[in-house]
Amino acid sequence: MKNEEKNSRIMKISAVILTLALLIGIASSCSKNKQQEEEITRGSNTIEAPVNKGDNNIFGEEFPDDTTVTTSGQTTTAASTTKKPVKTTAAAKVPVTVANPQANAQINQAVNNGNSGGLDAASLAEFVNVMGYDYDPVQGIFYTSQDNWQRQGNFVEHYDTAASYFNMNYRTVRIDFGQTDGMDWRIQLWKGLYGPFGGCEIGVYNKDPIENEKLYHCTDDDHLLYMESALYLNKADYEAGRVFFTREWQAHWWLTGFKLSIVDPERLVMTMRIRMRSASMANQFEEGLLNAGFLKGDAKTQYDTYRRSLNDFYILWDDIGEMNYIAQRS
Q1: ∠ Cα 322 250 298 (to 5°)
Q2: DSSP letter string over 137-168?
Q3: Using CB atoms within 10 A of its CB, is residue 62 exposed (0-12), middle (13-18) or buried (19+)?
């Protein structure tokens, strides 16, 4: 039985590696030079407090413990997206490269505006199709569903190192804690440039501490966490309340959003709310946040801080963590 489980795990990892290999041909047309080393940039213990006029964060109020609450008028869920009427232009005049005509129009517009990271429309559409993205036409964002194929690949830290070779340059931070429900837990955050997309991610993983030391499994349906997030292009946009996009309150294991735009990974600001499953788990997660470099604060005007409300955590993330590439300094 152990051999069968081991072989199954190897097959899953191999599937991810083969898929990444498929993406090499798609991403190779992007012009950014790649380097092999990583740069670790930990945040300072000094809290920077910008001038913030009013509560322009989407987390400007306390929410009741109601899993149906959302932070805006439109709701994106893992299974479907509630769509408001959206006017599109010229969608019927361009070659259809993905199933959703509005997503197709976004892709062609990105190519025409020079925001496709060097990819033509066909290559970009192929990338979207291979990754299995769903599309929210209200915000113009691509996102991964709860049962996306990547869920079978689990996660190891080497994926972050390899990502830079596929034109995915981002900041990431790993928050390790546990044990809860007999498992070690990891919540990993990402924000940055994913080829022609600006985006962010929250991943929830766990592992049996006896079974292995490195390989984290994507959490199963019985251990999903409720969460939401918002991404801003820079501090000025955050302080002015100009949100790039949001992902709404829902139970998930991998909450993602990607918008066709060239962004600066070092300037992005991300806000999020994550609910733990119990008070004990919340205590462990809080310890994990502190160990990762976050400080206790208001999570509104103080960057790289968190605020706790019962089992809910509000986080304002700027530069805690590490880059998966070496930034070019001028």
Answers
A1: 55
A2: TTTTEEE--TT-GGGGG-B-THHHHHHGGGTE
A3: exposed
Instruction: Locate the domains of the chain by residue range.
Output: 133-323
Question: Rounded to 5 degrees, what are φ and ψ at 243?
Answer: -80, 140
**Stretch 126-130: mean pLDDT, rounded?**
88
CA pair distance 76, 144, nearest whole angstrom: 11
CA distance 236 to 244: 12
52 vs 297: CA distance, rounded Å? 15
Summarize the chain as % helix, strand, coil (round to 5).
25, 30, 45
Q: For the chain, report the end-to-end CA distance as a whole number of angstroms.
A: 56
The answer to whether 47 and 297 have CB atoms below 8 angstroms apart is yes
Residue type at position 197:
F
Angle at 132 between CA 17 and CA 249, to 5 degrees: 115
* Angle separating helix axes 121-131 and 101-112, nearest 10 degrees: 130
What pLDDT is stored for residue 118 in this prediction?
83
CB 187 within 8 A of CB 291: no
In this predicted model, what pLDDT tens digit does every residue of 263-303 receive, in sequence order?
A: 999 999 999 999 999 999 999 999 999 999 999 999 999 99
| C-alpha distances in Å from residue 72, one per residue of 17, 113, 213, 235, 245 | 38, 29, 40, 22, 11
Taking residues 22-37, what's their average pLDDT?
Answer: 39
Task: Express each pLDDT in 92-107 by its tens digit.
Answer: 345 667 878 999 999 9
Query: Do 122 and 90 meet the contact criterion of CB atoms below 8 Å apart?
Result: no
| Residue 57's pLDDT band (cuts 50, 70, 90) | very low
| pLDDT tens column, 195-222 | 999 999 999 999 888 877 778 889 999 9
The β-bridge partners of 136 are 141
pLDDT surpasses 80 at 165:
no
